[in-house]
């Protein structure tokens, strides 16, 4: 019985981890199908451009563009020490990508938490947003801010701890 529960828990964790890669994999697949169609229609030179566009979209929508995520408890601990914001995000979220890109290099100062990888983080986001998993949710000084302006988040980074 314990083996079944452990196997089930590890299977669920694997599925949650892979969920972040579904959109990027679909984008690469669509780009490949489009390129194959262009090659089959005897226009192989034009197949490279859409392939590169779809690969670029896959990278932008993948977890690769974000700094490494940590779990919610570790993010809260680190934030209490250094005073930096905690950002709850999920792969594929356009508002999360906007925040990440607009923060630029300073995004590495923020503590990123992927709500699809951490059930406690998803619960914290639901608690802050009336039961919805609305991201990005930024926690600054213990107060949640849903989808704040990236300029405001940058200001929070420059404040002394």
From TrEMBL:
Domain Glutaredoxin: 86-143
Xref: CDD domains: TRX_superfamily
GO MF annotations, alphabetized: electron transfer activity
GO biological process assignments: cell redox homeostasis
Keywords: Membrane, Transmembrane, Transmembrane helix
One matching Pfam family: Glutaredoxin
Transmembrane segments: 21-41, 47-66
Protein name per its UniProtKB record: Integral membrane protein
Species the sequence originates in: Streptomyces sparsogenes DSM 40356
Taxonomic lineage from the root: Bacteria, Bacillati, Actinomycetota, Actinomycetes, Kitasatosporales
């Amino acid at each position: 019985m314990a083996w079944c529960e452990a196997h089930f828990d590890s299977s669920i964790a694997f599925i949650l981890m892979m969920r972040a890669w579904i959109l990027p994999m679909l984008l690469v697949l669509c780009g490949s199908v489009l390129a194959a169609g262009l090659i089959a229609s005897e226009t192989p030179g034009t197949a490279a451009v859409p392939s590169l566009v779809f690969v670029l979209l896959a990278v932008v929508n993948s977890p690769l563009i974000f700094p490494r995520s940590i779990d919610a408890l570790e993010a809260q601990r680190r934030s209490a020490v250094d005073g930096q914001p905690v950002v709850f995000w999920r792969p594929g979220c356009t508002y999360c990508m906007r925040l990440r890109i607009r923060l630029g290099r300073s995004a590495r100062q923020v503590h990123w938490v992927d709500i699809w990888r951490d059930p406690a983080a998803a619960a914290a986001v639901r608690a802050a947003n009336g039961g919805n998993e609305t991201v990005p949710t930024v926690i600054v000084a213990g107060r949640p801010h849903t989808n704040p302006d990236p300029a405001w988040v940058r200001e929070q980074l420059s404040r002394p701890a």
